[in-house]
Amino acid sequence: MKRLAAVLVFVLAAVFAAGRVRADHRSVPQPCVSTGSLDPDNVSYQSSAISAIDTWRSRVLLVHGNDDRNVQFSQTTGLVQLLRAHNVYHELIVFPDETHEPLLHKRYLYRSTAWMHFWAGF
Question: What is the pLDDT of residues 36-72, one digit of tens each?
């Protein structure tokens, strides 16, 4: 179960912002996590995986394209800050000029290989 939780982190990154939704269903940018401005009383924050980061024990692999239009890159950097603050082991792979899913086959293979190596070392 811990492995599943860590694998889903990069999928759940969209939840991280504890964001509101506009009429066109895109996330509204949220304040930077480093300012401590996420409201713990907010229902969307309480529903996110980040609200339980104190209990995270599993390793985390984050893979992000910096041209991702589904998940803001600032959400990943905020998550990295939280993981560091809570001493959660993590690795980060950033693909420059890449979207939410790898467009180049070689990057898809690199991501898949990195994922296998990450879990082989578990």
Answer: 446 778 888 888 888 899 999 899 999 999 889 999 9
CA distance 27 to 17: 8
> Is 71:14 a contact under the CB 8 Å cutoff?
yes
Q: Is the pTM of this model over 0.85?
A: no
Distances (CA, A) of 105 to 69, 93, 98, 109: 20, 16, 12, 6
Query: Would you give the end-to-end CA distance of the chain in angstroms?
Result: 13
> Is the distance from CB of 39 to CB of 46 less than 8 angstroms?
no
- The domain 2-120 is placed in CATH, from the list 3.40.50.1820, 3.40.50.150, 3.40.50.12780, 3.90.550.10, at 3.40.50.1820
